[in-house]
Design a protein that fits this description.
Length: about 230
């Protein structure tokens, strides 16, 4: 009896968990996981740990290693982008980003867990040098290099959501002068009620005052209701 062919697109949390559950509950599966990126599987939610030197190496900021799933019988392919899905014939076209070759793979079950791509700001200058996105291993390494560069004095963080606040905190701890900008009137205002964000805003202000007294840190400036 032939194995059931399962293709998982994306090595995000969903893709990882899908493979774990499938291999725990079922036998005789042919599982292939395709990831377009070159790294399996960077946790952007853990980027702050790397930026603040809470982990020793960027390769430690990951949800799992390829061999973790390969030991369970799955095949894991980095640098492989799914470019087309043919639901009539149950096939996906997969491009090897290193060789440039495209190959078709049959499937019985298809799981999509492709994650997200951060949006550039729709403003002039978004593609200038020294404009970085808080997403992925490559960006993490670039940001870390700037935090370690003593010639970089000022950092502006656009967006006061969870990731923006973490970026501001990491930058302040690195000794940079930080400006945190958001369009709404409260940090984390899209996630928390005013009672909580008032506490957060005070905490940010207190950290800024503390920074004035700490020789290794610089004040954080928080701006709100600024058009992007």
């Amino acid at each position: 009896m032939s194995k059931t062919k399962v293709i998982v697109v994306g090595a995000s949390h969903g893709g990882h968990q899908s493979v774990l559950e499938l291999t725990r509950k079922y036998k005789d599966l042919d599982i292939k996981l395709f990831e377009a990126g070159d790294f399996i599987s960077f946790m952007s939610c853990g980027m702050e740990l790397y930026l603040e030197n809470s982990v020793t190496d960027v390769n430690d900021v990951r949800n799992f290693r390829p061999e973790d799933l390969e030991k369970r019988g799955a095949e894991v392919y980095a640098n492989h982008e799914v470019t087309k899905i043919d639901t009539d014939h149950k096939q996906v076209a997969v491009k090897d980003l290193k060789s440039g070759e495209t190959q078709n793979y049959d499937y019985d079950k298809l799981i999509l867990s492709s994650g997200v791509t951060p949006n550039d700001l729709p403003v002039p200058g978004h593609d200038l040098e020294n404009v970085y996105l808080m997403r992925g291993k490559d960006w993490a390494e670039k940001i870390k290099a700037k935090l370690a560069d003593p010639t970089v004095k000022n950092i502006t963080v656009i967006g006061a959501g969870y990731i923006g606040v973490e970026a501001a905190e990491a930058s302040t701890k690195a000794g940079k002068h930080v400006t945190l900008i958001d369009m709404i009137d409260r940090p984390l205002g899209n996630y928390l009620d005013a009672d909580l964000t008032d506490v957060l805003a005070k905490e940010l202000a207190d950290k800024a005052l503390t920074s004035l007294r700490a020789p290794t840190l610089n004040p954080m400036k928080v701006l709100v209701r600024l058009p992007l």
